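User: Structure tokens for this complex, please. No commentary.
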Amino acid sequence: MKREKSKQALLYLFLFIGVSVMIAPFLWMLLSSFKTNAEIMRVPFTIFPEHFKFSNYAKVWTEVQFSVYFKNSVLVAVTRTALVLYFSALAGYVLGKLQFRGRNVIFILILATMMVPWPVTIVPQYQLMVWLGWKGSYLSLIVPAMFSSFGIFMMRQFVSHVPTELLEAARIDGAGEFRIFHRLVLPLVSNSLSALAIIIFLWTWDDFLWPYLMIDDQSQYLLPIGLAFFSGQFKTSYDLLYTGATISVIPVLILYILFQKRFIEGITMSGIKG
Amino acid sequence: MASNLTGLRKSRRFRFGSRELIISVTVGAIIIHYGMFLFFPILYGLYGSFFDWNITTSNFKFVGIDNYARKLQDPVFWKSLFNNVYFTFFSVLLVTVLSLIIALSIHSVKRFKTFFRTVYFMPVVTSLVAASFVWKWMYDPTMGLFNQILDMFNLPHVEWLTDKHTAMPSIILMTVWKDAGFAIVLYMVGLLNIPSSLFESAKIDGANSRAIFWNITLPMLRSTTFFVVVTNIIGYLQVFIPIYLMTKGGPGTSTFTTSFMIYDAAFDYYNFGEASTISFLLFFVILIVTFAQTALTKRRGGFDQ
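Assistant:
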């Protein structure tokens, strides 16, 4: 028993050391965002700011336009997530519950596209956007992302759990397929949709290279590009840089801590069902 | 006549009702979307890899296999592949081993399980762009957290991202911090799925905890391990964001990975032909790895969940 106790103590020690390693970068970022630049540069360092300097936030939010980047990011992420959810569910229903010729071929092709590495498509897609005249517009961020192979794959799995008898009953009652999809299938898979929403939202929120290549106008920047642009401009204003990073991390982190079970289930479902 | 008409209407409705409409609209949209935004670009990229293709000068001249010949003789290309393998090997190894150890520990303690899971998963939901910046600043030689901590113990400074020997390990360290939580949660689910009767009967048979780990726990987690290893290998062979934001491939070519090379060729030099060539060479490498893994699992009968 004594051995068991000391083993438990060792495990806790190990895990709490790990916890401090995991949260150290977050704390360092958050605490630095309240310091003056001089204090950040000072050797030896301080852990807690001498005075909490909240004006960093006001400055980054308005003067450096993070409020604009933040709004843009929310707009693009919400639009894209909504479209991906709808089209994933629709394709999941059609490919999962309706029988027609060529269905499996299409599904296998969609699965195969998940294996294509992004470096293969990014160069010709850039050329395509130039041809379409979508470079510099949010169309280039939203339209090519409307169908997500991953989303279709997940939703097909979840729609397949909807009992076929339920759909048959609705058909006998004379409901059309669109009505069945919107009124019956969508509500039934809403739990899975919220899990998928979290994944797609996070991916879009963090998407860097494509928006970076596509968006030229500074007033259209999204948060990650804004942060990268800003770090080039204010190379030595670490107080503002840490504040910018905090603004792009903390809102998502708060959502995560509030709904952590949903987040973890949602994100790992890709791993468990895959 | 009347019955004929209803018959006709019926058969027409049979041929094109809401079922046919939803199928044709959805399948049509899928075909147009994937055709336009994926299959066409892939084929056009493959085609363009045989051209001297520059988007700023609208140059598009057939050069045959010149791009491929040049890249295959380019030591920087081979260095970038080596860097990919270096980064991938150590990141996968560390992520897999550490997350297994941490998941086993969380599984074994009696309290705070949810707290540990929540904290270890935090970096997973964090933006990789922001994380790359924060780690870059923490690696700063003078005001960064790491060297300040070394100072506290009177240890010599490390140059981290600016030394060609430590740059890649520094990026790997950040990657392990960022990604371990995902594998930890997968392993925790895997551990919960092992029937406890297996452990009980092993204990009755007098097996010690080491034997239990090697003979029961690890084999029962095989499909989780396989998933973690495979998805991470494929993902890490394409690593870009931390490289671009933290080192830009440097110092020298010490962190110059293949996807960074593609970016560099395409968007620093607008040499789209060469960039496409490198991307298909990378695609080829990833395909080989994928097929090797599929062959391996078929032989060992893994991935059996």
